[in-house]
Records
---
Amino acid sequence: MAYRVLLTDALGPEGLARLREQPELEIEARPGLSPAELRDAVRGFHALIIRSGTKITADVLARADALRVIGRAGIGVDNVDVDAATKKGIVVMNTPGGSNVTTAEHAITLLLALARNVPQAAAGVRAGRWEREKWLGTEVCNKVLGIIGLGNIGTIVAERALGLRMKVIAYDPFVTHEVAARLGVELVSLDELYARADFITIHTPLTPETRGLIGRDTIARMRRGVRIVNCARGGIVDEAALAAAIKSGQVAGAALDVLEKEPPPAGHPLLQLEQVICTPHLGASTGEAQVNVAVAIAQQVADFLCRGIIQNAVNVPSLSPEVLRVLRPYLLLAEKLGALQAQLLPEPPVEVTVQASGEVAERELRSLAGDRRRVHVVDARLEQLHPGDRGARPPDDRLPERARGAGAHGHAHDRGRGGGVRRRHGARHQDRRLPHGGGARGLHPDAPQPRRAGRGGARRHAPR
């Protein structure tokens, strides 16, 4: 079978070459499509490969009659409606490792440029001004760097900052004190970070919980004269509040690689301030990173379509080829059970229970029954055939003893909320609670779990 792949943003030649190595794939590149053109273009394609320039909305996905996978060449998936994709059973993948070093290095570059006013001084020289006294900087050695989000990129920033002899503190509710200590980082509360840091750098995804995280109230709790770096996502920093704080002297300066609206409108208040450094979203813009993400997403999409291998998916569990060989028939069974239940039930179920015994019970069941961040095959099929705004309460992490016997089955019924993996009559169960009034959740591994669905699941970066 030939699979059709649509590229709507520029992808490096190395990535295109990797795709074209697969005889089963038909590649079509159509960058620069308008939203209306994209809605019409997606029909008949099995895969979409995008960067940050393409926005995949629920409206676009409604027209995608054959789509199986969306590949995001990069980390952030805030330009993809992951919930809508999950409800249609579409896998959303990203490339979390391809640009980590590049983005971390850019954050350090901006931090140093901010400390020494490098862009402003260079612009003055080009304009014929020699202003040594005006651009008095500050050393970073022995200064306190506060890192919000000690994930992959935040960890690399911490390592580089320690090399500059900075004192590094961090806030991340999903990192233990032991892990932070091994990095040489002191884990603190968010309020303590604000009070102590001379420099603050942000490395979280943009979510409802992190939007406006750096705002008027939080800036007021910061040390006077703090300097702020944001190479994460626009919208995390309240730009009007930051501009006001710089004018008042509460914030000494800011270095931003991202803005809420890109490119910014004329007369943007931050761009009128000489204490602000702004670059046009260059965090992942190195030759090495572009090659890394292009090759990675091309390989991931090819592996998914041609071999059924799932890697770096943000809304279903990633499976190795070995595990997939064992679980494939059970995944197909789970999908059929979901379709069957959807036709038999008069209304969306409150709970789905998946029971497995024998060989499959010794494997990770989350691919069949979902986990905190991901909606599983049964949920997806129920949503396609029995639409409704449902959420899934995460199961707990209790694992049973080795199960005996063979086989798997599932059933849906209406009973109290809750969830877990448990033993019953020698078999292993995984419950999926589907309370009415909640939306299906397919969150990025580094994104925080919405409060309504309970805490847990998200691995890092979610300030509370």
---
Amino acid sequence: MWPGGQQVPGTQAMAEAVAKTPYSIGYMELHEAVRAKLAVGAVQNAGDNFAPPTVATVGTTADVTEITAAPRFTIANAEGRMAHPMCVVKWIAVPGSIKDVDKRRATAGFLKWLYGEGQRQLTSMGYTALPAGWLTKMQGEVAKIR
């Protein structure tokens, strides 16, 4: 049986707990492990290869996964020689119709930024930018907001 663990509120707290606890293992967002300068381990993927958690392997995972209707797909355990098996997609739920014109413009403006210029900021924070095909699809969905 696995020994009991410690609950912590969020990934930053997890990184801090792992950093100060000898021989510990924690699961957190990649950017937190990088920020805390923690050692990370490669995980065996669907292709029987061991892929380390890096921006490149997470990007490979997204690249080999076709985006379909949210939230009906996953990138966890995706096929691909260096695809990292423990990746997730975070969703933003937005109604297709927003009656308030100011809210509609603000929402569409934010999403246009997120799926355009905002991708550079994500990478500077240690996140993986979305693949070009995903961005094109998302930009098309933003254009449908009425």
---
Amino acid sequence: MSRACLSIGLLFVWLGTGHALWAQTGPVFGSMQQETAEEMVSLCHLLSEPQINGQILVMPQDFGTGICWGAFASIGSVIYVKNNPTEDSPVFGICAPKRITRTQIIKIFLEYARRNPNWLNEDYVHVAILAIREAFPCGKPVRPR
């Protein structure tokens, strides 16, 4: 068997295994529907009090914290999107400082969800945007948290 055929075969096995593992994760992760705020709170709760040692973040290395970390990496990127690159009007009405950290964004989300349990069944992205907008609204001075 050629090296190329073996590599392609291993790729299909790997993809098949990944697909099987993905399908076994159940309705929360196996569907195309976004997680609810309640589900994301459950996944992120271990990151609510991160341990920082110098410049190093020490956090649990499990599936839930990985999902949370990746989800809020995306949210941290989109909160700065502008309506027009030449204007200073953020799409989501969020004027967060440029140096905000992902752990700060997660804390803001978790605190907002705790104070607003009526939003727990909503899409976590919507709730996260509301939380960050409440913390850093445009038109008011932005102070680091």
